[in-house]
Fold dolichyl-phosphate beta-D-mannosyltransferase.
Amino acid sequence: MATGHSTHPSDRTLVIIPTYEELENLPLIVGRLRAAEPERVDILIVDDNSPDGTGQLADELAAADGHINVLHRKGKGGLCGAYVAGFRWGLDRDYQVLCEMDADGSHAPEQLDRLLSQIDGGSDLVIGSRYVPGGKVVNWPWNRWFLSKAGNIYISIALGGGLSDMTAGYRAYRRSLVESLDLDELSNAGYIFQVDLAFRAVEGGFAVDEVPITFTEREIGESKLAGSFVKDSLMVVTAWGIRHRAAQVSTLAGAFWRLGRDSVRQKIGR
């Protein structure tokens, strides 16, 4: 457990790593993270009852290192549910920064400092982005990169968030932002909850920033991402965008109506 007098929010950081059948990847990512952040960062492995023994290995890692913790869930409840459980665990233990990190090595622990430095600088949510200057993707086929890039452009236009990579899963949240969320209401439509979280933060007036990261496709195991992800996600985002734009139009119409009413009153008053 990270201890000592905290002078920055990042001095009390919890990195949440969800796992499901990541037996080979887990010790690699945990080892890299402990080497990159040996003092200020604690780790919470959230395992969804992996049949390959990932949960048991997580317990062994935790028994050997006080910075590592394990939360076992009864079944495969999805990535959103794992992070929500991790958020609640971290809030209960007074962590000031809560981070998301994949277990498969696609998020480089060596770049976590980029996110934490931005949090210490005043950001409420920092997204490790593939699509801002300096960000890049390694070992993706061209068509997958294109779908991801185009999808994020569409999401940004539909929701007006002004962000380049709203689907990204390498993130750092300030505690106050997580506390403001109704975690029970988060969307669980595939990985679209990442968009939901970012959009809620923007809409809530929180400071949301992006930093460049290198996303590397996993080398061990298979992706848990379903083939229908893009289609299903964009359908959900389209519905959100329609509601968002309708609300904007309604607000704008109301403002113009009040302006017209006040102008009439002024003329009558003369």
In short: Residues 9-227 form a domain with the Spore Coat Polysaccharide Biosynthesis Protein SpsA; Chain A fold (CATH 3.90.550.10).
